[in-house]
Amino acid sequence: MTLPVVRVDALMGNRNEDAFRQEAERLGEACARWGFVRLQGLPRDLNLDRMLDDVRSFFSLDENIKHRLATRHFRADSLNRYRGFFPAEPGEHALKEGFELGWSDFEPTDSLDFLQESNVWPDVQPYDGWQSSVSLYFDQMLEVGQVLLDGLETYFGLTPGRLTRHFNNSLSTLRMAYYPAIDGRTNTGKLERDGDQVFTTPTHTDSGILTLLLQDRTGGLQVRNRQGEWMEVEPEPDTLIMNIGALLEQWTGHQLVATEHRVRAPDRSRYSVPFFLEPAPNAEVAPLTDKADFTPFLYEQYLKRKLSQFVEYQGLAGA
Ligand SMILES: O=C(O)CCC(=O)C(=O)O
Ligand SMILES: [Fe+2]
């Protein structure tokens, strides 16, 4: 069994209305049934191989350069608590390094509110133009995300803009991730296990709206289907994996599902790039369908509550 394919080109640009409706229906059904989709027919100017090269070159930077970007949880004198680098922590529940960025246009401010936190960038770039290449990828993910939301509006018969309008000034996060190879000497302490398999990202659902995942050719991503069986999502060229987050599940009254997934520990280095599409802080989350029944709230309230559950973010202003 493989995940359904949705063609992004059918949902974009000079679109043919019939093809658009048909693809929006496929997208909605796949998100309702699986919560996971393979995206193909991606924009021509989106260069996935280049992004993976950019990620590998970031993690090959000198350790000191990366550590200067670490968040305060890992580096006491850091000004950043939200956006930045996190090192691998052998013995913990996950085993990966990461570097997280938000919307590239945030200006540095001295506000204590982490929602105002600006990006940090390496003081030595892997190559000239690396930062603009990564920023371009961020903008392209935001655009693909909007195209998909546009399709979901059609699937649910919503007024155009009902969802998409909440994504200007988005709080979306781009994460570059590096999973070191594990071997017999690795401290696998608290890592999740299932039979003889070990997982460097434990079973979870994503918390936001939707995730656009680029993975290299190593493999290891597993998704739990409706029967409760784990299936492997094989890497494929020119493909992104999309999955629904818990907030969109709630927003749609559980008509779309946030599906559990996990990542098996690799025996060689693995690189992946999840882009977590998130609304603007002041987006009002109010029932989207008549199946949804909850009191409206602002996205920033949800985010602060979520983050306060993660030890890395303890002490965030207002969290
Ligand atoms: O690295 C991956 O392939 C997926 C990671 C993931 O599920 C996550 O960061 O939420
Ligand atoms: Fe995830």
List the defining traits of the structure above.
alpha+beta; Jelly Rolls; 319 residues; single chain; binds fe (ii) ion; eight-stranded mixed β-sheet; binds 2-oxoglutaric acid
Short recap of the structure:
This is 2-oxoglutarate-dependent ethylene/succinate-forming enzyme. The protein has 319 residues and is an alpha+beta fold.
Write up this protein.
- GO terms for molecular function: 2-oxoglutarate oxygenase/decarboxylase (ethylene-forming) activity; metal ion binding.
- Pathway: Alkene biosynthesis; ethylene biosynthesis via 2-oxoglutarate.
- This is 2-oxoglutarate-dependent ethylene/succinate-forming enzyme.
- By secondary structure, the chain is an alpha+beta fold.
- It has one domain (about 5-315): B-lactam Antibiotic, Isopenicillin N Synthase, Chain (Jelly Rolls, Sandwich), CATH 2.60.120.330.
- About 25% of the residues lie in helices and about 20% in strands.
- The chain is built from six helices and 15 strands.
- It has helices at about 15-35, 50-60, 65, 130-155, 245-250, 300-305, and strands spanning about 5, 35-40, 85, 95-100, 175-180, 190-195, 195-205, 210-215, 220-225, 230, 240-245, 260-265, 270-275, 285, 295-300.
- An eight-stranded mixed β-sheet has the order 1-2-11-8-13-5-4-3. The protein has a five-stranded antiparallel β-sheet with strand order 6-7-12-9-10, with no helix packed on it.
- Helix 1 links the parallel strand 1 (about 5) and strand 2 (about 35-40).
- Helix 1 packs across helix 4.
- The longest helix has 27 residues, at about 130-155.
- It is globular and about 55 Å long.
- The mean pLDDT is about 95.
